[in-house]
Each structure stands twice: as structure tokens, then as C-alpha cells.
Design goal:
The strands form four sheets. Strands 10, 11, 12, 13, 16, 17, 18, 19, 20, 21 and 22 form an eleven-stranded mixed beta sheet that branches. Helix 31 runs antiparallel to helix 35. A hairpin with a 4-residue loop joins strand 19 and strand 20. The protein contains 35 helices and 28 strands. By secondary structure, the chain is of the alpha+beta class.
């Protein structure tokens, strides 16, 4: 068969015999490919590399920041202002001491600063593909032209014969030709932590799941032990890793709710501003009967355009989100993308892994069955403390000696070590065996002591075919003929007559029981009856139905050490000891977190690769699912169309035996139903789903670099409760963002209306210059807005459903509040402006006749201070609130007021900002008018309280 007729991306290599696979790829297990064949295939398939699609360049990202409609309007304002200054400079009409182009420079500086802020947030390069590439091996050993050679991994082609040994990272997907004790860690691909025993001779059904393809190896996985010869079947983007890379790059990044709302806000503000500018210009031209005052009308228009744009808003939002990330880190949630802070507050569905997130990732024995009795075992984690209970009552081990006998088997037939590290009990070794060592400790059986009493002399190791393991131990004091002087420990005295060795066996309950002919009764062994056998099998089924992982234990006295490889004959006529059922126990704090989710209107969903019975048991225990709730398995999901999945996705709270690639379909189905999804993941295969989710959450402890790079948030403690805490923080951040948007835009509307009113009511000149407006928008608005950003949460923040992520920024009364307060602002300021104009133009006035403009400027600024104090709560009066619960607001008000007074009374600042000296009487009038703003907002709260309404 020629290279041109090779199968394209075949997904059925696991269903072919080795010889058939070699024939299809026209390869030879002993000699590999010839140089000519290699060259042909390199040309056809290309190098064994992950390909990257072209993304936006750094310059494109930077230029995109200046396509924002508000920044474009400011750029236009700056250019027109610069043109007017240039004309004035040429005409020699600048006022004495006036600095030309200062408005243009200030506006452009703000534009550049906002552009840089946006660029910094957006330019964090997606490094998920780079992390994927790290999983590929740089060098690989292959057989080519009947010679063993070492080549670069990118030179591999389908049909190559690759050699593997312990410690290697696998460089391509392949079909095993032969293997010896090969174990591969595939957790990066499948999410399963335990290594997989591979077998070359298997021929599997086509529908076999990826994690169960025991005759294949995959790129990016790691050889733990053994060696193998592999036929390369897929390279580059056709490997399983390549498919993930393709999925990862196909997922489009959607703007976050906050970004969508800010775009909407910009469109509304700019449109409204342009309409108002048109009205003022047209009205002025009609009023003047021509264009004789067009320059003055242009200056008014420029001031209005600057006033409508909240220049300080992007900086305030960025700082608010950054402060939110700091608070979240203290709660073990690391935010990788700044807008995700606010996005968390919109989450309606949390899809969580089971192992390690909802559970402790620590197997804990829950139940023990011996001699027709089933005992419940208490205790948390790996701590060897707990009780054995029968019918809810604690029992002593003297009453049930068979528990001690079973616990000895758990300790001796075991390769794990229990130790205390920094005050915490931990396991070195397999978690399942760790649970057994902990069980033995609860029964007073210390593994180290019993290893010296029953030193291991031989073993039959576990294999996936046998589904059991056995250890042979020498009985202290018997084998040496010293039984009479030293004696045998009473706990095992009834195991023996005079045999010098004991064999302990553990494994599949059905298979271990099938090899047992007797049962241990606590003081002796007796023949195992058929009735007892059926009861044991029924108990095994009962434990399994509760989601427990069940192991069976037995022993056998031996006269001599059995020869190596004699497991089939030696593991017969066993004495049955009992069953042990264990579970990856739920985290104690998760139940409360799930309940908090429910109260907050957030639906928790469990997605796991584990058995459906285990998944249901944990989900029911935690309150994620109720008895009888729908459960969907990976195989059922595979058979569903996208439309069928979408119809069922709101009804399913548990997904079991799900492979990570199914997560992407689940997320997309939920999103099509309008849900806002947070998704957890830790494996390489989880990366596309994490990127697709509205909030992708990677595991900080068990997560791969690929999953972390694809995520928006990393859980530093891998704990579901941390997601709920972060969601609460997201809600607080969004509430505070809305609060300071109300604060900033209410005053902006007041500024615009005030500026527009000046020429229409016949006052000479523009009351506010662009520079003064920038001062108000950046300092007078900005500092109190930052202080409002750290306002503590309302008590009921997690007792309400999430607000719709698609709601308008103006929803729930924010738009009407801005317009209402803006109009009140304008009425107060226009009234002041009218009085001040008459005052400064009265006969005999000693000051500068333009001082009325400074009074307008001062009134607008100080009125905002009262606004900042009043807006801290939508419903509570200021006198009902603790003024020191947010000390930053008080500090911002004091500092901003002092800075404002400095612009009036410090000569260099007065000259630069174009203000004029005010007498104490004039300043008092400004403060009096400003106080009316505070009084109005407090009066609104009283009115709403009387009407029985509550502002949201």
C-alpha cells in the first residue's frame, strides 16, 4: 500500500489486530520504514507538530482600542480644539498667559491612557497552545531501515516503529505492537489520575471510550513503567492532542457582559451627545440669525462632547476589578483575566468536576462487612481516628475480632505509607491503599508494626486481567521454630496451625470470593456455605449501589513460599475475611456552598468520569441532585444530537462516565439555552470547554498548565466552596460598578445640560472649559468613584437570583436615575449660574466678571461630594449608616474638596485651569446650592420608603 492510500485520521486503530494495522500502514514491525517511504509521508502528512492559526498581532490589538466610539469622539474633540487654538494663535487672539493646545494635549493624554489600559487587559497572549506543545517529546527512538535511530519528534510519520521505556513522553499516537508491563499515565488526556496498564494483544470494539483503549498510546502522555514497541498511527494535528489544539483554536472568545455593557453605554452617550450638540448649534444659529457666533457654538459643542464622555470610568473599572482580584486571591481564587471578576456575578450554572473539587480526593472507608455483619466506619480524610458502628451504636473491637483480622489484611497487603506532615495526615502511594492503611489505624493496627511481625517475602502483583493482588508474609516466630518461646500475635493465632507463611489477597469481591472455600468467623474458620456466599454478593451489590468502591479480602496459610508465576494455583482455597467499601468523601464545606448556590439562584451540576452510582451517591449527599433526578452517561450523551442534548440539558444535574471532550458539548448546549456557565477542569482535554465557558475554572493543585492557560480563574485549593465565594465577590463588584456608574453619569448629564443651557438662555461664553471638565471627570468624579468601588456587600447579595448577563447597563432603574439626577443637577446648577451671572455683572461688582463660570465649576464639583455620600446605599438614609464602614468615601470627599479649593485659591493652578478668585460669600453660595443635591437624594429615599418601594 502506498503512502497516498493511507487511512485518513482513522479512529478505529484499537479495533484492529496488530498485523492488520501494520498492513494498513504498509510498515514492518522489525525493520520499520525505508528512507523513500519516510520522505513521501513527510510530504503528505507534514511534520509531527501542532499548528497554530494566526491570531491578532500586538499592533492590531493596540489599534483596536482606539476604535471605541467614546475615544473616537474624544480624538475628534481634541483635533477640533487644536484647530481652534491654532487659529487663535495665528490671529493673536489668545488671552495673556493662556497656554495654547492645553485642552488638546490633556484630551489626547486621556485617550492614550485609556487605550493603554484596554491593551494591557486584552493583550495577555493565549498560551494554552504553547502549554500543549510542551507535552510533546523533543526526541524519540525509532526503527528505520532495520536500524535503531534517534530522531526529532517532529520527523515522525505514520508507519514509523517507535520504542518506549519508563520516563518517556510519548511523541505521537500509536498502536502497540508488543509491550512488557507497560503502564502509562494518561491523566492529561482523560482526567483519570491512575496510570493505565496497556496490552498489545487486545482487539477492542469500535465504540470503546478513549480512556479504555488499552492497546493504544497517545501523544503527550507519559510512560510510568515497562517498555513497548509502537506503530505510529497519527501525527501532528490528527493526534488526540492535535484534535484538542484544533478545538481550542476554534473556540471564539465572546465579550464579557461588562464589555458588552460598556459598548452599549458608549453608543448611547455618544449618540445622545451628538444629538444635543446638533440641537445647541442649530438653536444658536437660528437665535443669532446666522453664523456670526459659530466659534462660540463650537466651543460649547466641544465642552459638551468632553462632558458626556466619562474619561475616568475605564480607569475606575480597571482598579475596581483589580481590587476584586486581590480579595479573591485571599479566598484562594486566582483571576487570570480581569473582566472575569465581574462576569462571575452573572453565573447561573456551575458545572463542577467531582474528584477533588466536590470531594476531598481522599478515599475514605465508609463500610466494612464481615461474617454477616455490616459496620459503618466514621472519620474524615486520612486521619487514623474513627469508630466502628453497628446499627448506630459504637462497638468495641473485642466484641468483633473479625474486624481486627480484616484490618491486618488491609495493612499487610498494601504498598502505601501513612504519615503526618505539618500536622496533616497524608498518604504516600495509591489513594485506595491509603484508605485501607487508615482503616487499619482506626482498628489499632499499625502498618509498620505488622510489617515487622509479618515481613513480606513474596507477592503476586495486581494486574488488570487478574483484578487482585496477593502478598506472602513470613509469620514471626514460626518459620524459625521459635513459636513456643516468642509466640504468634494473638490477632492471627487463629489463622494458623503450624504453617510458617500467610498469604493475604485483596481485589475484585466476586473473583476473590469465587476462589474462597472457607470464611473466618473471628475465632476460627469454617466452610463457606452457598447461603453465605449469596449474602456476601448481595452485600457487595448493596455497597456498590451506594457508590462505594468495594474490595474483597481473604487469606490462606502456606507451608512454603509459592514459586513465581504460580498465582493461578496458589490463590485457591482461600479463607474469606470480608468486604471493605470506600468513597472519595465529600468536602465538609461543600454542602453549605451548594445550599448557598441554591439560595442565590445558581444551579450546580456534577460532571465526572466516575461510575454513575458513585456520582449519584455523592450528588445526592451534597444536595446537587434529589432522589430520582435525571442522570446522563457519556455513552447516552454520545448518541444524542446537539438538539436533543439542548432539550435535556436543563433537566440533568449529574453527568457520569463523561469524557472531557463531552464537556464542550454540555457547555454549548447550556449556553444555547441562555445559561451563563462556569466550568471546572484540570486535564488537557478540558481546555476547549474551559475556553468556551463564560467562566473557565482550572484546578491549581491538580490542573495541567494547558487547562490553567485556557481558564479565566484558577482555584488555588481545588475547592467548590471557593467558586461560590468568588461568585459572591463578582456580584459585589458588579453592584459597586453600577453604583459608581450612576454616580459618574448622573453628574455628566448635569454638566452637559448646564453647558447647553448657557448660550440658550443668553449667557455670554462657555461656563466650563474642556480642561475643567476633564478635571471633574477624572478627579472630582474619579476619586469618590474609586472609594465607592470598595463599598461592603449588601446583606442579601446571595439571597437573590443572578441578574441577567444580557440585561442593559441601564436596567433596573439605573437609566432613569441618571436622567433624573442629571436633570436635578442641571436645574440646581443653572439656577446658580443665572444668579451668579447677574451677581458678577451687577454694577459696582469688584471681581472678575467671568467669576460666574468658576462658581458654576465649583458648584458642580462640590455637589458631587454630597452625591457620593448619599449614593452609598439605595435605600438606607446616610444617618442610618456607619460613616466609617467605608472610610475611603469620607477620605475621597475631603481630599477632592481640598483639591477643588486649591484650583480657586492657589494662583499657579488658578491660571492653568482658567478659574477666578471667589469671595467667602460666593463660595458659601456655591456650597449652599451644592447641598441641595444631597438633600434631594435623601428625600427620594424617604419618598420611596413611604411608597413601600425598594430601589435595586
Amino acid at each position: 500500500m502506498s503512502a497516498n492510500s493511507l487511512p485518513e485520521g482513522a479512529a478505529v486503530w484499537h479495533s484492529l489486530e496488530v498485523d492488520k494495522a501494520l498492513d494498513l500502514l504498509d510498515s514492518n514491525a522489525d525493520s520499520g520504514l525505508t528512507p523513500q517511504e519516510i520522505q513521501q509521508r513527510l510530504q503528505k502528512y507534514g511534520p509531527n507538530e501542532l499548528e497554530e492559526t494566526a491570531g491578532r498581532s500586538t499592533w492590531e490589538i493596540l489599534l483596536d482600542q482606539f476604535k471605541n466610539i467614546m475615544l473616537l469622539m474624544l480624538i475628534g474633540v481634541a483635533l477640533i480644539s487644536g484647530f481652534l487654538d491654532l487659529m487663535a494663535l495665528r490671529a493673536g487672539s489668545l488671552k495673556p498667559g493662556e497656554v495654547p493646545f492645553k485642552d488638546t494635549i490633556a484630551i489626547l493624554a486621556i485617550v492614550i491612557l485609556n487605550g493603554i489600559l484596554g491593551y494591557v487587559q486584552e493583550s495577555r497572549a493565549e498560551k494554552a497552545l504553547a502549554a500543549l506543545k510542551k507535552l510533546t517529546s523533543p526526541l524519540v527512538r525509532v526503527i528505520r531501515d532495520a536500524r535503531l535511530v534517534e530522531i526529532a519528534a517532529k520527523e515522525l510519520v505514520p508507519g514509523d516503529v517507535m520504542l518506549l521505556e519508563a520516563g518517556m513522553q510519548i511523541a505521537a499516537d500509536g498502536r502497540l505492537i508488543e509491550q512488557s508491563n507497560l503502564q502509562v499515565r494518561e491523566s492529561a488526556l482523560t482526567g483519570e489520575a491512575q496510570s493505565v496498564n496497556k496490552q498489545a494483544t487486545l482487539k477492542l470494539p469500535e465504540e470503546t471510550d478513549l480512556g479504555d483503549r488499552l492497546n493504544l498510546v497517545f501523544q503527550g502522555t507519559e510512560v510510568i513503567q515497562g517498555r513497548a514497541k509502537v506503530l505510529v498511527t497519527n501525527t501532528g494535528m490528527t493526534t488526540e492532542l492535535g484534535k484538542i489544539a484544533a478545538m481550542l483554536q476554534s473556540v471564539e472568545s465572546e465579550p464579557t457582559p461588562l464589555q458588552q455593557r460598556m459598548t452599549q453605554l458608549g453608543n448611547v452617550l455618544v449618540t445622545g451627545s451628538l444629538i444635543l450638540v446638533a440641537i445647541v448649534v442649530i438653536g444658536g444659529v437660528i437665535k443669532d440669525g446666522g453664523f456670526k457666533n459659530i466659534q462660540e457654538l463650537l466651543e460649547v459643542s466641544l465642552s459638551m462632547a468632553v462632558a458626556v464622555v466619562p474619561e475616568g470610568l475605564p480607569a475606575v473599572i480597571t482598579v475596581t476589578l483589580a481590587l476584586g482580584t486581590q480579595r479573591m486571591v485571599r479566598q484562594n481564587a486566582l483571576i487570570r483575566k480581569l473582566p472575569a471578576v465581574e462576569t462571575l456575578g452573572s453565573v447561573t450554572t456551575i458545572c463542577s468536576d467531582k474528584t477533588g473539587t466536590l470531594t476531598q480526593n481522599k478515599m475514605v472507608v465508609q463500610s466494612v462487612a464481615t461474617n454477616n455483619k455490616t459496620f459503618r466506619v466514621t472519620g474524615e480524610g486520612y486521619a487514623p481516628t474513627g469508630d466502628f458502628q453497628l446499627d448506630g451504636q459504637k462497638i468495641s473491637l473485642e466484641q468483633s475480632p473479625e474486624i481486627s483480622a480484616l484490618s491486618i489484611a488491609c495493612a499487610v497487603c498494601n504498598d502505601s505509607v501513612l504519615q503526618k506532615e505539618q500536622g496533616e495526615w497524608a498518604i504516600l502511594g495509591d489513594p485506595t491503599e491509603g484508605a485501607l492503611v487508615t482503616l487499619a489505624g482506626k482498628a489499632g493496627i499499625e502498618k509498620d508494626q505488622w510489617n515487622s511481625k509479618l515481613p513480606r517475602v513474596a507477592e503476586f502483583p495486581f494486574s488488570s486481567e487478574r483484578k487482585r493482588m496477593s502478598v506472602i508474609s513470613q509469620v514471626e516466630g514460626v518459620a524459625t521454630g521459635e513459636a513456643s518461646s516468642r509466640g504468634v500475635d494473638p490477632a492471627i493465632a487463629n489463622f494458623l496451625q503450624s504453617e510458617p507463611y500467610l498469604m493475604f489477597t485483596k481485589g475484585s469481591p466476586e473473583l476473590t470470593l469465587a476462589r474462597s472455600t472457607q470464611i473466618y468467623l473471628g475465632d476460627r474458620s469454617a466452610p463457606l456455605t452457598e447461603e453465605q456466599r449469596q449474602k456476601i454478593l448481595a452485600e457487595n451489590d448493596q455497597m456498590a449501589s451506594k457508590g462505594l468502591r468495594v474490595l474483597g479480602f481473604a487469606y490462606k496459610p502456606l507451608a512454603q513460599i509459592p514459586p513465581e508465576g504460580s498465582d493461578e494455583t496458589s490463590e485457591q482455597d482461600l479463607v474469606w475475611l470480608g468486604l471493605v467499601g470506600m468513597l472519595d468523601a465529600p468536602r465538609p464545606e461543600v454542602r453549605a456552598a451548594v445550599q448557598e448556590c441554591r439560595e442565590a439562584g445558581i444551579r450546580p451540576v456534577m460532571i465526572t468520569g466516575d461510575h454513575q452510582l458513585t456520582a449519584r451517591a455523592i450528588a445526592t449527599d451534597l444536595g446537587i441532585a434529589q432522589e430520582g433526578d435525571r442522570l446522563l452517561t457519556g455513552q447516552e450523551l454520545q448518541r444524542m444530537s446537539d438538539q436533543e442534548l439542548e432539550q435535556n440539558v436543563d433537566l440533568v444535574s449529574i453527568y457520569a462516565r463523561v469524557s472531557p471532550e463531552h464537556k464542550l458539548r454540555i457547555v454549548q448546549a447550556l449556553q444555547r439555552r441562555g445559561r451563563f456557565v462556569a466550568m471546572t477542569g484540570d486535564g488537557v482535554n478540558d481546555a476547549p470547554a474551559l475556553k468556551q465557558a463564560d467562566i473557565g475554572i482550572a484546578m491549581g493543585i491538580t490542573g495541567t498548565d494547558v487547562s490553567k492557560e485556557a481558564s479565566d480563574m484558577v482555584l488555588l485549593d481545588d475547592n467548590f466552596a471557593t467558586i461560590v465565594s468568588a461568585t459572591k465577590e463578582g456580584r459585589v463588584v458588579y453592584t459597586n460598578i453600577r453604583r459608581f456608574i450612576k454616580y459618574i453619569l448622573g453628574s455628566n448629564i448635569g454638566e452637559v445640560l448646564t453647558i447647553a443651557a448657557a448660550p440658550l438662555i443668553g449667557l455670554g461664553g462657555v461656563p466650563l472649559t474642556p480642561l475643567q471638565i476633564l478635571w471633574m471627570n477624572l478627579v472630582t468624579d474619579g476619586l469618590p468613584a474609586l472609594a465607592l468601588a470598595v463599598e461592603p456587600p449588601e446583606p442579601d447579595v446571595m439571597q437573590r437570583p443572578p441578574f441577567s448577563p444580557r440585561e442593559s447597563i441601564f436596567a433596573r432603574g439605573l437609566g432613569s436615575y441618571m436622567i433624573r439626577i442629571g436633570i436635578i443637577f442641571a436645574i440646581i446648577t443653572i439656577a446658580l449660574m443665572w444668579w451668579a451671572y447677574q451677581h458678577t455683572h451687577a454694577p459696582g461688582y469688584q471681581g472678575n466678571r467671568d467669576a460666574w463660570k468658576t462658581m458654576v465649576f465649583t458648584t458642580l464639583c462640590i455637589a458631587q461630594m454630597g452625591h457620593a455620600i448619599a449614593i452609598r446605599s439605595n435605600n438606607r438614609l446616610t444617618i442610618e449608616m456607619n460613616p466609617f464602614s467605608n472610610i475611603f468615601v469620607l477620605a475621597a470627599v475631603v481630599v477632592t474638596t481640598i483639591l477643588q479649593l486649591m484650583l480657586i485659591y492657589v494662583p499657579p493652578l488658578r491660571d492653568f485651569f482658567g478659574t477666578h478668585y471667589l469671595t467667602l460669600e460666593e463660595l458659601g453660595v456655591c456650597i449652599g446650592f451644592s447641598a441641595l443635591m444631597f438633600v434631594w437624594i435623601e428625600a427620594e429615599k424617604i419618598f420611596l420608603r413611604i411608597m413601600g418601594k425598594k430601589a435595586v
